[in-house]
Amino acid sequence: MASEPSTQSRVMFQSSDKTEEPPHRKLGKLTVKYNRKDLQKRLDIEEWIDGQLHLLFDCEEEDIPELEIDIDELLELSDEGQRSRLQELLQECGKPKEDFINGLLYRIKGLRKMSGPFKK
C-alpha cells in the first residue's frame, strides 16, 4: 500500500520574517546598574546566613523564627550599631551567636549598598 510521493498530501508552514520588536530595545540594564561580582558576593552571603540560621536555631526552615537580616540596613550603621542590631534580631536564639555575628560582619565588609547607585 505504498503511495507514490507525488500523491501524498503535505502540510507546509510559512514563517513570517516580520518581528514586532521596538527598534530601540535596551538590554542588560541589570548588569549596567549592578556589578555582577557584587551581586554574586551578596548572594553568597545570603546563602551563608541561611545556613548559619539553620545551625543556630537547630531546626527545619519552617520552624526558624521570622527574621529579616537586611544587609543594606546593616551597611548604613556603624560597626557597633551593626553588632547591636544583629544581637537584637537574634535575641530569641538560645545558642551562642557571637561567631555568627562576627562572621557576618566580616563578610559584609567592603559590600556596597544596593538600593542606591554605585559610585566607582
Automatic annotation (TrEMBL):
GO terms assigned for molecular function: protein serine/threonine phosphatase inhibitor activity
Keyword Acetylation: yes
InterPro entries, alphabetized: CPI-17, CPI-17_sf
Any GO BP: innate immune response
GO cellular component term of the entry, any: cytoplasm
One Pfam match: PP1_inhibitor
Biased composition (Polar residues): 1-16
Keyword line: Acetylation, Phosphoprotein, Protein phosphatase inhibitor
Disordered: annotated span: 1-28
Membrane-spanning residues: none
Recorded superkingdom: Eukaryota
Coiled-coil features, chain-numbered ranges: none
Family the UniProt entry places it in: Belongs to the PP1 inhibitor family.
Protein known as: Protein phosphatase 1 regulatory subunit 14B
